[in-house]
Amino acid sequence: MQRVKIAILGIGNVGTGVWKILTMNKEQVSARSGYDIEVAKVLVRDKKKKRNVEVPEEVLTDSFDDIINDDSIKIVVELMGGVDPAKNYMLKAIKSGKHVVTANKFALATCGKELAEAAEEFGVKLNYEASVAGGIPIIHGITESLTANKILNIVGIINGTTNYILTKMTLNGMEFEDALKEAQQKGYAEADPTSDVEGYDAMYKIGILSSLSFGGYIDVDSIYREGITSINSIDIEYAKEFGYVIKLLAIAKQNDGLVELRVHPAMIPATHPLANVNDSFNAIFIKGNAVGDLMLYGRGAGDLPTGSAVVGDIIAILKNGLDKNVERNTFASCPLRIKDMEDTRCEYYIRVTASDTPGTLGAISNVFGGNGVSLASVIQKGKGDVNVPLVFVTHETLEKNINKSIKEIKAMESVVSVDNLIRVENI
Amino acid sequence: MQRVKIAILGIGNVGTGVWKILTMNKEQVSARSGYDIEVAKVLVRDKKKKRNVEVPEEVLTDSFDDIINDDSIKIVVELMGGVDPAKNYMLKAIKSGKHVVTANKFALATCGKELAEAAEEFGVKLNYEASVAGGIPIIHGITESLTANKILNIVGIINGTTNYILTKMTLNGMEFEDALKEAQQKGYAEADPTSDVEGYDAMYKIGILSSLSFGGYIDVDSIYREGITSINSIDIEYAKEFGYVIKLLAIAKQNDGLVELRVHPAMIPATHPLANVNDSFNAIFIKGNAVGDLMLYGRGAGDLPTGSAVVGDIIAILKNGLDKNVERNTFASCPLRIKDMEDTRCEYYIRVTASDTPGTLGAISNVFGGNGVSLASVIQKGKGDVNVPLVFVTHETLEKNINKSIKEIKAMESVVSVDNLIRVENI
Ligand SMILES: NC(=O)c1ccc[n+]([C@@H]2O[C@H](COP(=O)([O-])OP(=O)(O)OC[C@H]3O[C@@H](n4cnc5c(N)ncnc54)[C@H](OP(=O)(O)O)[C@@H]3O)[C@@H](O)[C@H]2O)c1
Ligand SMILES: NC(=O)c1ccc[n+]([C@@H]2O[C@H](COP(=O)([O-])OP(=O)(O)OC[C@H]3O[C@@H](n4cnc5c(N)ncnc54)[C@H](OP(=O)(O)O)[C@@H]3O)[C@@H](O)[C@H]2O)c1
């Protein structure tokens, strides 16, 4: 059996998973890859820190130079996270002729084009199955299995933290803050949960999937993004009454060369397969012009599921023979044309607090009508208080019509506040 | 752009789908494969038959010699079905150095080892993503994406015809015969539905998946197989009362080098994701020792979904360069050790018709107890008739204990008939 040396940058959550899989499935990994894999170096910040796996002292290093200067290391597995210094380490590895495997959605979504171009130039592979939806083979799915398809749209639940929180709010009636605290205690949310709950994580991931599906790069900051912090238990309740469940969706659609991209909470029919994707599970719905509807469901995070994808990527490099890996650049060189959010169409749920005076409901309805928004249902909740909640659900309409309506409604004397706006996706 | 010639054997359902995709997604297929693909020959039985796509007259042939003797044809796409002559045509193509793509589960399940060994020997690729679950990338999933995992078990709804029939019986209260007729009218079932409704089709597919997952070949006839013809609307009703849905499952489990393989209808919890896989959709649940639970859901049949997988396989051959495709034989050379069905463990639903006399229920329960079968519930349906239906649901027990019990129960004087036995899978 041939031997190959690899280096792992970072042995936190995912790094630990990779180490465990390389140990527990050693025989199978060798058989499938054709190589006996030796983890020659593991880069960390703090060599003294207690680890969950036993890494021999001589393998641990806090200097990237030990790795980049070692020509016997053929694959660099980047599992540190963040753009800086991860991106530079990956570029250096690529330029030294080392193949790169990474789980880093942040670096890929923001610098994927540069990394992929470098990999193509230097004839090495850049594999990143783990960067989106952990153990779910969505990157492979799009780039290999569905490659004969024009991808028409993608609708995904691709952030486990927010899905865990929304599940607790939906099934256990918890409030956002309590559900977040529980998620943190269970290790599903970070101490600083911003990236997850504000939708950045999902934004990076849908950015990567769009580049691969539609064949162009995008500026991720041009993706419309809303988190789940404004979702209230009252909205979850009302959603239930209408037969919906609230999920944080990442949506990408292509039509006439124009790509629609958005990350936001949405009400989806309680009967849709995505509605039953609970806890920290992820799922991605894809529609291709040949395959039709396809859904992939599984664990989007965690040491072993994510490690499963990383080790799969390592095997993919090895089994073709280390030297035969030049591949076309997937983050194609032209930018995608992104549709203006104002021009997107959706149905909307809008919750308003207004004074319980005759004519208020009618007046608000008129504002919608005046802006070309037709209403599917209007419900006044409660009765007799000075102020009452009003809930409107619209038929499909343009985002700009909604925005204009909301502006006008907010200015009405009888309106106390527009409390929430949640898109309704009748997928 | 380089050009490559391919031949298609058979242009029925799937062949038509492949032809359509190569036409409608031509530009993308070229970009992803690096080749301009020309379908140089299409083999049919009857050149005069009206086709759903316009195949130029000079492309149609009824002689395989036109294809095998043409050295400019580099890939043969077998979409005829059946073992004879499909298998021989594939072997001849392989031996002439042509790559082979096929959707033929029957030929693969029975002769996969021979075909794969020949492909390895002659340095060509044998791709067959379409052979299991149509457009769902399950073959790729197992052999590539999950390759770092030990697969622990697979539970699949992999026959669209039976799933369509069971869905109609469950949601619309239809009887088997009527649902089958409707399936035939809609093109979901063949005039002779035996292969589907008796579970042969699912048996071939789970055979292929097992070989790939567990790394050995199997004699498909050693797979335990039951169809859905004995499922009665009354069983569907009772299942509902217990919170279950009846699906035709294909199950493969591995434990201590022993593989458990079975195809049969089963009651599964109505809340399980597989319970909501309806109509002709397919879905496959896989548990890997790293990735955990994973589910793939989509269209398991139909011209375009199946064609999507076939064209994906063609692109996979081309994009690596036509000459670099030697790969390890996936239908490994050792046989898998199959567990005796008598030694498998399950929960069971058993429906009996017996005389409504005092003591009958107790006597039957005693037979179960005497054979080490513990009962989870016993229900007598109806009252006052001479004969009444009794329904037993057991706790997990050995198949052989059930078989012994059934034999004894059938021999009881107060028992008119044992009407049905359906396994209960609390997945
Ligand atoms: N967690 C998941 O389930 C998951 C799922 C999919 C993708 N990902 C991605 O996988 C990557 C890793 O995530 P993780 O959860 O495993 O992170 P983590 O637990 O925070 O671990 C990061 C590791 O990288 C090391 N590291 C960080 N910065 C470093 C630096 N400048 N120099 C040297 N070592 C450094 C850390 O060393 P010390 O231990 O010494 O501090 C630590 O071992 C991220 O890109 C993440 O987005 C994670
Ligand atoms: N249908 C699906 O959705 C589906 C899904 C997955 C996999 N598959 C598999 O795909 C394969 C094809 O299925 P299908 O539904 O497309 O079959 P089909 O509609 O019956 O078409 C078979 C085609 O093969 C030709 N053919 C059959 N025997 C031949 C022979 N001895 N010589 C020359 N031509 C011959 C027929 O020619 P004539 O037209 O002249 O008779 C016809 O064009 C099968 O292996 C099936 O199991 C099918």
Automatic annotation (TrEMBL), chains A, B:
SUPFAM superfamilies in the record: ACT-like, Glyceraldehyde-3-phosphate dehydrogenase-like, C-terminal domain, NAD(P)-binding Rossmann-fold domains
Entry annotation: catalytic residues: 205 (proton donor)
Catalytic activity line of the entry: L-homoserine + NADP(+) = L-aspartate 4-semialdehyde + NADPH + H(+)
Annotated NADP(+) binding sites: 9-16
UniProt GO MF annotations: homoserine dehydrogenase activity; metal ion binding; NADP binding
Listed pathway(s): Amino-acid biosynthesis; L-methionine biosynthesis via de novo pathway; L-homoserine from L-aspartate: step 3/3; Amino-acid biosynthesis; L-threonine biosynthesis; L-threonine from L-aspartate: step 3/5
UniProt keyword annotations, A-Z: Amino-acid biosynthesis, Metal-binding, Methionine biosynthesis, NAD, NADP, Oxidoreductase, Sodium, Threonine biosynthesis
EC number from the UniProt entry: 1.1.1.3
Residue numbers binding NADPH: 105
Keyword NAD: yes
Ranges of residues in domain ACT: 349-423
Alphabetical list of Pfam families matching this protein: ACT, Homoserine_dh, NAD_binding_3
GO biological process entries: methionine biosynthetic process; threonine biosynthetic process
InterPro entries in the record: ACT-like_dom_sf, ACT_dom, Asp/hSer_DH_NAD-bd, HDH, HDH_cat, HDH_CS, NAD(P)-bd_dom_sf
Residues the record lists as binding L-homoserine: 190
Family: Belongs to the homoserine dehydrogenase family.
Protein name: Homoserine dehydrogenase
Gene: hom
